[in-house]
Structures are given as C-alpha cells and as structure tokens.
Amino acid sequence: MAPQGRGSAIVVSILLLGMLLHCGNVLAATYTVGDAGGWTFNVVGWPNGKTFRAGDVLVFNYNPAFHNVVGVGKNGYDTCTASSGQTFQSGSDQIKLVQGGNYFICGFPGHCAKNMKIAVNAL
C-alpha cells in the first residue's frame, strides 16, 4: 500500500503546483500609464512607488495622431532613441511586462526629451 500512497502524493503535488502556477497568471495586475491623464508629457515619474511584476500589463492611452509608444532598451531610453524598438500606435496599447527592466518612450520628435518616457522594473 505504501507505493500507491506515494504515487497519489506525487499526483496531488503536481496538481497543486499547476494550480499555483495558474493562480500566478490570474493575479497579474493592469496599470493605466499616467492614470487618468494617460500617456503624455512629464509621465516619467508615474512608476514611482508602484510594484510591478512580470506578466503585469501596462495600458497606454493616447491620441495616435500625436503620440506613439516605443519599447526600447536602457540605452534607447537614456538617449531617447527609438530606432531599434518595437512601435505601438493604436492609441490604446496593452503591453505585458517582462522580468527586469522595461523601457518605453514616445517616438515622436522631441517628446521623449519632454519626459514622455517611463522605466519600469518588474519583479
């Protein structure tokens, strides 16, 4: 009877692990960048005081005639260079965070320099 008990314990453990992993995805949070003001100038400080996790979703709301969102690396963020990043331009973009640094700028000329950029570190 002992071998059956161990097999059942393994099955239960695998099921519990699967449920925990699934719950981790369910607990992902959604954040609207810039809150009610949306993705606009001087939003650079918006992430301050917030805790982000990999899998959380950032929603960027803006007028696509005047702005966009470009996912860039740290260098692109620091230098306001959008040339190598992925560009989003729907006006209501939903972007899932990856673990570590996530960097976003507006690719319209001069906008990043006016602090239309955010850096988010996801745990």
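The record above closes out task 2.4. Task 2.5 opens with a second protein, given below.
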Amino acid sequence: MSHQSGLTRLIVHPNDYPWGKVGNDSLAGRLTKNACEPEFEFKPDQPYAELWMGTHPTNPAYLYSDKEKLLSKYLESNPDLLGSSDTKFGSPFTGKKGSGTEDQTKGHVPFLFKVLTCKQALPLQIHPNKDLAKLLHEQDPEKYPDVNHKPEIAVCLGSSFLGFASFRPYEQIKSFLNSIPEIKSLNSEIQNNIQTFTKESTGDNLRSLWESFLQLSDNEQFVKDFCKRVIEQGSQEAFKDFKGEGFSDKEKENLLKAVKSSNENYPGDGGLFSTLFFLNLVELKKGEGMYVGADGPHAWLEGEIVELMAISDNVLNVGFTPDEDKDDPSLVGKTVTCQSKTPKELILNSNKFSKSNKGNTVVYQVPFEEFSILNIKNDDSLKSFDGPAIALVLNGQWEISQSSTKKSEEDKVENAEEGYCYFIGAGTETTWKNVSKNKDEAEIWIAFYDADANKSEVGEK
C-alpha cells in the first residue's frame, strides 16, 4: 500500500429536489460548473437543491483525476488518510442487499457536507437515533440505507436564512394553542391532548400532542382558513395576543412569511401547524450557524446554507409533503425527546482557530463528535488535522498548497476557484492564498474531524 496525496480534487454532484432554487438562482447550481465533471450538463430550468460532498453511497464523491474512482475506494486503499476517524467511528454501512451500499462499506469520512439552497419549505423531518436507524435499516434497507444517527448544523451563506428547528419553549407553544381560533376546529383527540399538555407541560405530554398534530392531512380546510385569515390581517393583527420572548415584531413578520410560503407551496398541509405552533422559527444572518440534535425536528424554509451532519441519509418526513410520502408519526415518537430550546440556545459560537497561523480562519463550536467546520476569508495556513477534511471554494480564486507531515510526500499547489472541492488527508498541512480580484467576497469552507483540536474551540467531543 503506497501513501497517496493528502490534497485531492474531487468530483461532487447536486440533487434536484423540487424545493431547490432553479438554475443560476441556486448557489448549488452555480457551483456545479467546477464541482462536477467537465461534461456535466447544467440545466437552467432545473432546481438544484443540494450539492453533496462526502462518501455516502447515495451521492458519493469521485476523484477528479480518475472520474470512475470513488473517494471511498481511494480511502479504503489508503486508510492512513482518514487518521483516527477510521477506527473511532467505523462504517455505518452494512452492505445489506437493496441498500445501495453493497460494495461501499469501507473508506468513509464520518460526516456529510452540503451546500443547500431552498425557495420553499423542505419536508418537516426528523432523523432516527442509532437504535431506531438500525431497526429501520433491517426492515427496509432501500429506504434507510445506513445505521447512523444524523445530528447536523447549518451556517447561513446569504443575507438571511429562515428555518424551523427544535421545539419552542413550552409557554410559547401554549400561547399558540390557546390563541389560534382555528385550533378549536381540530378533532377531539387533539383537543384532549391540548388540555393535558396545558395542565401538565412535560416532554411526554408534548410528544403525544405533537404526534396527534402530525396525523393531520396534506389538505385540511382549517389550515387554509388559518392562512387566509393571517394573510388578510397581517402579522401585527393576526398575532396581536402574542407577547414576550419569541414574539417580537420581526419574529411575527417571519411567522407571516412562513404562512405565505406554506399557503403558496403546500396549501392546506397540516405540517404548517406542526411547525409554526411547535418549533422555533430561527432567522440566521450571514455567517451565523445553528445546530439540530440527532433527535431534533426541523424544516428549512428559505435561503442558502452550508450544512454539515453525521454521515447518514436516514430521514422521517412528517409534513410539507404528500400524505402518501409521510412516515408513521409513531416512529417519530420513538425518536424525539421533546426538549425545548430557545433560538439563542441553538446558535453556534465561533472564534479564531488556534490551528490557523495567520488568524484568518474562524471555527464553529459544534457540539457533535463526528465533525467540525471552519471558514477562511483571507490568506492563511492550517496545521494538520488527525482526521479527514473536505474543502469547498465557495467564492473567489485561491492558490492552495499542501505540506504533508509524511516526508515521502511532495508539496502540491492547486489553482482553485468557485466550486472546486478537495479532500484533505490526515496529517496534511495546508496553505490558502487569496488571489481574487475582489478579495472581500472570497471564502473557503472546510468540514473536518480532528480529535486533537482545542475542545474550547470546536466543542466537547
């Protein structure tokens, strides 16, 4: 086994889900020019929802130098490039027939890195924990291709991003339940669960209540009536009885924006009630990040983000999707903890990275073991990680060079621009030189695992 280059350009591909922005309006779409193989056909009328960067067999990366070679196969032959992550996490893929992972069970980075761009709400979803993922994979490996959990983070790339994430504080939920007149039209099971939760606001009672809301269909008249009233009244009148934390004028405007979006794209879908009344509607500004735990419900609404998660493609969809595509709400009950959070509690702290030699790199304090993320906006060099990394040139022109700690490896220089994507092997020091005409707009994002990183910077692992 010969040691290969620690800096390797990749071919990565988009997903064309209908909620993505279309053509050149989509950042994920624009990145395909250099992220994909040269013969990739960009379609200006097609939605481009995500750009995947990682080794998950659902949409895996390939080597740019060998377009038929999977990154996972390259790493399987060169496990030293994975560093400590190779033995720390192992593979979440069993190779079970029908899973699509039959020949890709080894050589995996422990995270999945994405650029995501949405013009409307994604399905209201939650990801199974490891125990439930293993059970679901055994039962239906085609739908649930791995046995991993999927905690994740999102960092805003544009001027703003809106998304539903994690349960609101219980008092806010009760404000909706007691103040929205259309709720009185809901069935007796929901009414009883509302009374129970109002009297005793516990996680178990919230779980039962939320599950009953998840059983609402994709075509409910009282959801349409609610939307019509709120849109006609406007945010201040429709939510005039809502006061205190979570209900500032700006937050009420965002509630109205969510109602309008749902009414336009998912008219009558009960998912609006399951999100608006129960989950935080978080607004991020450029460079701000938030996290969703492995059992946290969420539904991204509008904007562009880098998204980073444990390597998994397991998902339970329970809203903003046709009834025939919705998963059993009782499965969600086995996953969700119903812990409430405020938006401030979801926001990621960020600071200068101590492995940065010039101080031009910001790292986000991520509370999950499998991954971390950093952002470079000007010339810098980084000390090596003891695990793998994937870098994306989001904007600008850069000169990238490596200097491996392994003496057998030669230094390598790359001229890179928007959409170039690289794998960085464990033990590889890198230098990033901003040679853009407009240096202020240039930026690099790097997802990585590093057990040696300062825990006060990347979060306890």
